[in-house]
């Protein structure tokens, strides 16, 4: 039995997970599977069934969609016909706002003039390009399928089509990467003039081949100071190109912030479809089964494909609110946050705030608290430090 997706405030945001990848990168901890011929259709039908079962007959709390995000995995592995079918199926079940933003993550090797035209025709109007680096050696270390030439070609296709609403993903902290190599990547990324840049430090997650690679782990242990230099350099250079930081890892020109990102960070409800996708109805959050086989089985049996459901308690909600606010450059009114969750600022907390300010990790002008650029890299640790004892 599928519980209807009822939200505490209007939901306008849909995430659709497409797990297929040509090859699995050794650092990747997302829910992915190697693409194989004939695997798409059954999955796409399951996505539409999941949407239909979730929405049920009720329209309570549902506005038209103003953000649809195809993430992965590699959504650009889908054919244009498959994408059209999926978007048509979604639209039939959940009407779109006339100004809906429909984003698709794509990898450089899938981008050419013809594919862009097809994607635009299917309704996609925002692209997120998984570039990561403009240097072949670094791309090889990351186990990427594409090379630097393919990335340049993808960007030039975007430019020929005069696309404005696209994001470039750039990675730093790649094993062996030097500051001058990072500067070259950053320069080329900014010179390609995207209106949105996502900048991620490489993370080494348990269960990935990188986690079991002693060279990679040794590099990561030694690299934190260098990574700080990469990041601070990027914050400085993006600002000089008019890309404003609006979250730890995201920079955009005015009007080009990702709507789906903003919804998540604002604490708005969103529905996620597909294996491993997460959803939030304003009160509880849940994640779908990560195994595609089990996900498909559950949908076939019209059963909820859930892996877990959480209903955060007051302390957890306070922590999430603090964490999400500190990831944004504007930070938060610390006093108002405490009042909202019934917390008090004792002498220990005051001392912690003053110490963090002395280390230049936070800007603390009571009641306003925000992270400095240096502090952004330590956002999780600072959030835990500022949380009240359980
Ligand atoms: S292409 Fe992206 S999603 Fe796919 S394995 Fe590599 S990092 Fe993961």
Describe the structure.
There is one protein chain. Helix 1 runs parallel beside helix 2. It is globular, with a radius of gyration of 21 Å. A hairpin with a 4-residue loop joins strand 12 and strand 13. With 390 residues, the chain is α/β, with parallel strands linked by helices. The strands form 4 sheets. The protein has a 9-stranded mixed sheet with strand order 9-10-8-7-6-5-4-1-11, with helices on both faces. The chain folds into 2 domains: 255 residues, pyruvate-formate lyase- activating enzyme (Alpha-Beta Horseshoe), CATH 3.80.30; 73 residues, Arc Repressor Mutant, subunit A, CATH 1.10.10.920. It contains 15 helices and 17 strands. 41% of the residues lie in helices and 22% in strands. The model has no long low-confidence stretch (mean pLDDT 94). 35% of the residues are buried. Bound molecules: iron/sulfur cluster. The site of iron/sulfur cluster has 11 residues, from loops.
Write the SSE topology.
Blueprint: E1 11-18, E2 20-21, E3 33-34, H1 40-55, E4 62-72, H2 80-93, E5 96-106, H3 113-122, E6 126-132, H4 136-141, H5 148-160, E7 166-172, H6 179-191, E8 196-201, H7 214-222, H8 224-240, E9 244-247, E10 250-252, H9 259-265, E11 271-273, E12 278-280, E13 285-288, H10 292-300, E14 306-310, H11 314-326, E15 332-333, H12 334-340, H13 347-358, E16 362-365, E17 368-371, H14 373-376, H15 379-386
Parallel strand pairs: 1-4, 1-11, 2-3, 4-5, 5-6, 6-7, 7-8
Antiparallel strand pairs: 8-10, 9-10, 12-13, 13-14, 15-17, 16-17
Structure characteristics:
390 residues; alpha/beta; pyruvate-formate lyase- activating enzyme; 2 domains; 9-stranded mixed β-sheet; 3-stranded antiparallel β-sheet; 17 strands; binds iron/sulfur cluster
């Amino acid at each position: 039995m599928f519980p209807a997706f009822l939200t505490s405030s209007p939901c306008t945001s849909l995430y659709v997970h497409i797990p297929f990848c040509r090859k699995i990168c050794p650092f990747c901890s997302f829910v992915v599977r190697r693409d194989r011929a004939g695997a798409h259709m059954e999955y796409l039908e399951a996505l539409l069934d999941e949407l239909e079962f979730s929405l049920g007959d009720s329209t309570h709390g549902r506005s038209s969609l103003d953000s649809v995000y195809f993430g992965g995995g590699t959504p650009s592995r889908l054919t244009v016909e498959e994408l059209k079918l999926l978007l048509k199926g979604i639209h039939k079940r959940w009407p779109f706002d006339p100004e809906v933003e429909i984003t698709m993550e794509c990898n450089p090797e899938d981008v050419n003039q013809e594919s862009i035209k097809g994607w635009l025709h299917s309704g996609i109007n925002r692209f997120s390009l998984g570039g990561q680096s403009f240097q072949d050696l670094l791309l090889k270390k990351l186990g990427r399928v594409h090379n630097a030439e393919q990335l340049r070609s993808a960007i030039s296709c975007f430019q020929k089509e005069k696309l404005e609403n696209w994001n470039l993903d750039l990675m730093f902290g790649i094993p062996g990467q030097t500051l001058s190599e990072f500067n070259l990547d950053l320069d080329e990324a900014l010179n390609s003039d995207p209106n949105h840049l996502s900048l991620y430090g490489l993370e080494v997650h348990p269960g990935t081949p990188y986690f079991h690679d002693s060279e990679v782990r040794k590099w990561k242990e030694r690299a934190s100071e260098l990574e700080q230099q990469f990041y601070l350099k990027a914050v400085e250079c993006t600002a000089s190109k008019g890309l404003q930081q609006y979250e730890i890892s995201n920079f955009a020109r005015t009007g080009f912030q990702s709507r789906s990102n903003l919804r998540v960070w604002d604490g708005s409800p969103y529905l996620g479809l597909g294996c491993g996708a997460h959803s939030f109805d304003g009160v509880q959050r849940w994640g779908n089964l990560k195994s595609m086989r089990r996900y498909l089985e559950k949908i076939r049996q019209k059963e909820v494909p859930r892996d877990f459901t959480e209903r955060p308690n007051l302390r957890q909600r306070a922590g999430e609110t603090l964490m999400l606010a500190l990831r944004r450059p504007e930070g938060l009114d610390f006093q108002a946050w405490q009042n909202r969750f019934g917390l008090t600022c004792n002498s220990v907390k005051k001392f912690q705030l003053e110490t963090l300010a002395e280390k230049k990790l936070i800007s603390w002008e009571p009641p306003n608290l925000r992270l400095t650029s240096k502090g952004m890299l330590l956002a999780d640790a600072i959030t835990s430090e500022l949380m009240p004892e359980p």
